[in-house]
Each structure stands twice: as structure tokens, then as C-alpha cells.
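batch_manifest entry 22 of 60
target: PIG-L deacetylase family protein
source organism: Georgenia deserti
requested by: lab member K.T.
priority: normal
notes from requester: please return C-alpha cells only, no post-processing; we will run our own comparison against the previous entry in this batch. if the run fails, retry once and flag.
--- input ---
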Amino acid sequence: MEHLPREFERVLVVAAHPDDIEYGIAAAVAIWTDEGKDVRYVLATSGEAGIAGLPPAESGPLREDEERASAAIVGVREVEFLGHPDGRLDEGLGLRRDIAAAIRRHRPDLVVTGHFGETWATGYLNSADHRALGRATLDAVADAGNEWIFPELADLDPWTARWAAVATPTPTHAVDVTAAVDRAVASLAAHRRYLEVLDPSTPVHEQAARQIGWATAPLEGFDAERAVGFELFVFRG
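--- output ---
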């Protein structure tokens, strides 16, 4: 297991919903911002369909606010929402175009996104939004560097990130996040209303600590007390 390359200055993390980044990736983000990296978030949706009993018109703004507060805990100040419908992400040209446009605007060296495999583990299906978002993001990394695929983006100069990294249960590279676990827990716990409804019987901080404990478990072949694993893709040398 190799260390994720560190020769980057700007990172763009792309996710489907508020809270997706906080289930592990935010621990790595905290390490990167400590090192002076410029990390920014792009969310395809506002998570407006994610809180039972709370209508989307109320839930969306609430979840956006929780995401901004959560991002700030790990040193991220710029959070962008693309406005696609929660629960109905379409892995099509529209999503690819909007992510490619975001990549051109933010011009990252490294694009990071979440696990988009069919399952998390045997018997645990990954969400349709996660599957669509991850595939569209990797395609958009290539699209952003091609001036001809989306001519409607001609006002944004083409940009090709050097790498993309996908948080996955089967990583090739990892980040030592031992020093960031507490902030990762606090970042997830900032999604208070979402977690309170998700599991009313368990205190929010306890839920967050448990989830981050799983997400940052030691990785075989990687010398770190706590780690987050990624599959690395190279787009330019």
C-alpha cells in the first residue's frame, strides 16, 4: 500500500450529498489543509430528500448549512452546490458537463470522489446517486481537459487534473489520518439534524465516532494507526 502522492496544491472533492465527504474523506482533507493545501468541495445535490419528515424545501437549505459548517471544521471554506435533484442523479451528459465545468473553474491538481461500486459489501447496495456521481466524476476529469466535448463551456479554459482518487474499500494508496480523527468526528457530527433523524436512539457524537472509527481503520500493508484508502487514477504526468 503506497502513500497517496503529495505533490499537489489544490484539491476538488466531488460528492453527491451533504455528509458523503464526512464519512472518511474529510479526515484526509483535514491533513491536507494542515499542510496548506487548497481544498474545495462540490456537491451535486443539496441532500434535500435525505431527512424523513422534513420537506425538501426546508431540508435542502438546512443540509447546505450543515455541510458548510462541517467543511469549515476541516479547513474548507469554499463549498459549491450544483442543484441536481437528490435521489435522482442522472449519470448523463448534464451531470458530466456540470462537474467538468466545476473542474475548469477550480483547476485542481487532484480530484477526489467517493466509492461508486455497486455494493459496499456483500448484501449492502450502494445508492444510485453514489454510483452515478462517481462514474460521472471520473469521466468529467477527462472531459474538462477536452475543448470539444462540451462546446458550451468554451468560456472556461480547459483543465486536466493530474490525478483522481476514489475512496474505496479496495484501495491502492492511503493517507495517514491519525492526527485528524477528532476533527473528522466533529465534521460528521456537524450534520446534526440529519444524524438525529437517521438514528434517534444514539447521540450524534457517538454515531459520528463509530462511523469514523470504521472509515479510518488501519489498512493492511500501510504503516499508520488510522488511514483512509483511495484508488488512484493518473490523468497526466
